[in-house]
Amino acid sequence: LRSAMAEERPLAMVTCTAPVNIAVIKYWGKRDNDLILPINSSLSVTLHQDQLKTTTTAATSRDFTADRLWLNGEEVDVEHPRLRACLQEVRRLARKRRDGGAEDAAPLNLSYKIHVATENNFPTAAGLASSAAGYACLVSVLAWLYGVEGELSEVARRGSGSACRSMLGGFVQWQRGERPDGRDSIAQQVAPETHWPELRILVLVVSGEKKQVGSTAGMQSSVDTSPLLKHRAEVVVPERLALMMRHIRERDFEGFGQLTMQDSNQFHATCLDTFPPIFYLNDLSRHIIALAHRFNAHHGCTKVAYTFDAGPNAVIFTLADTVAEFVEVVRCSFPPTTNGDQFVQGLPVGSAALPEELLAAVVMEPVPGAVRYILHTKPGPGPQVVDEPSQHLLGADGLPRCRA
């Protein structure tokens, strides 16, 4: 019915949301830059959209004169090659479906131009996988608009490699694949978001600034110059993937946490092994790493595990019963200078009184204001369609709405 009505209305519009994902076995390096095919498989956790998400609205109309895109309210170049690749691929699939005589194939005119508005509720290009959520959202919204179903993670991968993992919820593997055309380089769910109810994620936001070396350029440089990266892709990652999937299936936090930290460290070692070297971690990132190890040593087991993508923000995995204590440790180590009441955002965090011996063993010289805020979240589902028309980012004229 939605599809049938689309032709009668001057404007067809769909809104979707999509999640950020954080890799625990990292993807770094492409074997094909155009198709975005990775040199190794990877594994990630999809974060809950209540805390971190991209929202995208797509509209098509015979009245539109050009394809247009707005990101966080600013119009951007719609001719970006990766953007084009996603748009063309979804339109191709829609055409194929229609030619195949699908009963409910959307009668939308595929030659109509499209308007897209997208917003993130977190800093863009700060090492929080904004491109993953962004392209997963774009592909989802276009697929809904054009009535395309089936394997869409391959399409999202054409926009941003890690976007294919944001097409699914919970724990997700992106399979490297073997085919040169990339048809088998897709995402698969290892376990749903409900599989490990106690798992929590704390994002320690230290900087919302744009990174100095983008992921795309950094990867290419590493592939060209790092012998460690080659060894990692061929020898280390295959073993770690199998092990990580077992830890997740068994909900073994000790194993999961240790391997997460080891893999993060090795990824950043390949950045250092790149020539000239790439530094995504800063002094504060290293402070947080040391803090996590002191915290675990004090408890005699792995209570918290850090991982860092291509940026300085720390992502901490822990279990629900550890959150309050570790958040208090972070608050004592990096006392908020201005936003004490807003320092912890997202899921509620209980209060914790820290024993003297823990304070003495774990909290060193405090660095006030170094952590801007902590975002508390948990694993969540893949892309969702928004049925509420008031949530559309585009108005009836197909232009961005003024957002309060």
Mean pLDDT: 92
Q: Strands across the major sheet, in which order?
A: 8-7-9-6-1-17
Query: How does the overall form come out from the CA principal axes?
Result: globular
Query: Order of helices and strands, N to C?
Result: HEEEEEEEEHEHHEEEHHHHEEHEHEE
| SS class | alpha+beta
The rounded distance between the terminal residues' Cα atoms is: 33 Å
Output the CATH topology of the largest domain.
Answer: Ribosomal Protein S5, domain 2
Q: Which range best describes the helical content: under 10%, 10-25%, 25-40%, 40-55%, 55-70% or over 70%?
A: 25-40%
Which range does the strand content fall in? Answer: 15-25%
From the structure above, extract its key features.
21% strand; disordered N terminus; Alpha-Beta Plaits; Ribosomal Protein S5, domain 2; 404 residues; 5-stranded mixed β-sheet; 35% helix; 10 helices; alpha+beta; 2 domains; single chain; globular; 17 strands
Describe this structure in words.
35% of the residues lie in helices and 21% in strands. It has 404 residues and is an alpha+beta fold. It has 2 domains: 12-193, Ribosomal Protein S5, domain 2 (2-Layer Sandwich), CATH 3.30.230.10; 199-377, GHMP kinase, C-terminal domain (Alpha-Beta Plaits, 2-Layer Sandwich). The chain has a 6-stranded mixed beta sheet. A 5-stranded mixed beta sheet has the order 13-14-12-16-15.
